[in-house]
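>> Question from a student workshop board

For tomorrow's exercise we were told to take the sequence and the ligand below, predict the bound structure, and bring the output to class. My setup keeps failing. Could a helper post the expected result so I can at least see what it should look like? The ligand is flavin-adenine dinucleotide.
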Amino acid sequence: MNRYELSELSDKSYDVIVVGAGINGAGAAQYLAAGGYKVLIIDKGDFAGGATSKSSRILHCGLRHLAPGKSIWDFVVHPSKFFLACQNARKSMIARSEISSSMKELVRPFRFYFPIYNDGPYFSWQLDFAFKLLNLLGPRDNSLDYHRYSGKSLQEIPFKKWFRDSNKLQSVSVFKDYQFISAERLVVDTIRDSAKLGATVRNYTLMYKPKQLDEVWEATLKDVLTSKEVNVKTKLILNVTGPWGNWVNQMMKPGIPDKVIGLKGAHIVVKLPEEFSECGIMVINRANEPMYILPWHDMHYIGLNRTPYDGELDEVKATKDEIEWLIGEVNYAFPKLNFNREDILYSYAGIQPVTFDADDPQGSREVVVHDLASEGIANVLMLTGGPIWDYRNIAKKLLKEISSRCVPSLDKQRPSFCSSEMTQLLRETSPTSVDMKYSENIIKKIILEEQTVSLADIMIRRTGLGWAADRGEATADKVATLMAELKGWDEQRKEKEIQSFHQYIKEMHQVH
Ligand SMILES: Cc1cc2nc3c(=O)[nH]c(=O)nc-3n(C[C@H](O)[C@H](O)[C@H](O)COP(=O)(O)OP(=O)(O)OC[C@H]3O[C@@H](n4cnc5c(N)ncnc54)[C@H](O)[C@@H]3O)c2cc1C
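>> Workshop helper replied:
Here is what the output should look like for this input. Compare the format with yours to find the bug.
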């Protein structure tokens, strides 16, 4: 995956410029390149550096689509809502099956426990019904292994003694769900395939000053590291910049109404007692929202609190209040843990891009492709919404929309949905763990093949080393030494890189 000199792109023409290389940009570039389009995909930062690397990493089975809005009557009174919920649940089940079988190095199954309380919003029978329905809706090749513990069998749950109000605990449902081991590598692998199919790929490249010239767009690309600029032309611009989407639209035509809203979600990372080991738990918090407690190395991450956000997008961190709120909710669900701030190992936060909805400050979950011709600018499409698990359906949808507007200039090819050889090398660990293997050879290959610019690119977004319990403490110096060797950094530059990485970890993953 060559990182072209910016000057090599000067005055080049493309069918489509994909702006943004999160999961949705990566998926779109892969499908478009396979569909015969001459594609340029750029990101102003590193690949997957936006919302995609800050998620709860769940390859959702679709259960939450079946949760009725306010009460079960919502579905009874509005059967069309129930029908839509079933359609979405089926889509999730199919995606779960496809991704977990084709990219098994990048996902792992885990047991997801869901306690049902007498004072909670759901009844046990609703869960039994929902899982029956999911099994019917989904493909037969990947069971949910659903089971519900009640009465005496509750004692079989390893962490049973930690639950709140055991006298109100009716039952606990458990099922098999999947976790993305690295959404970042999913993006990199997808972009690697798009490059193999002919797409031009470049990170740390900002698109700005787009101008419409008769039939085509001309855009300026700026290398954010050197500030060098070139102009390129394209028949169509695809805005897949997630939470930055409105801002990119404004560059094309000031005054376009907001299409996306950002919801901020924070996570805390903690060490739970041994009984919780490798168990995922979903509880309903006091705001009546699901809270996820998910296994991660020998720790767990816990999130999230979705709040509308219109602040700065580039360096989003969990605030002291958000961390305290999460601690309060964990202590509510598991009072005997009695956590306080000293128990937090690290935190992270991101902005989920959801579709603007004038009637709901939390936006809509719908995935929408907006044709900005309706705003007076032709040949610009923008995506809003779009979770990680749905990326292949979204890419298909984008390809279909683009096919009806723009003819491809190249031949069609077949994409590969398998994980790359690099991922396979990194994951020569236990398939049930989230560990990535560190070896000099693998890191050297990553440096040479995967457009790495900074130490953080490798530690956070090419390997999971920076997400481990020590947050890369044991490996950062060794990786920096290899980077220095291959990139010709002097000692001063190497030290600066190590300092910046540690500073990044301290600031972005702060515990306050
Ligand atoms: C807290 C949280 C929890 C979540 N949990 C889950 C989950 O469990 N499962 C799930 O499937 N999904 C989850 N999501 C949702 C999911 O992460 C996002 O919907 C998805 O990652 C969005 O991807 P994207 O490619 O659209 O946007 P992004 O990943 O944000 O990518 C957009 C990219 O555009 C780039 N960009 C912006 N402006 C420009 C410009 N002018 N020029 C060039 N590049 C530009 C940015 O640098 C960025 O990399 C969660 C999200 C959050 C925040």
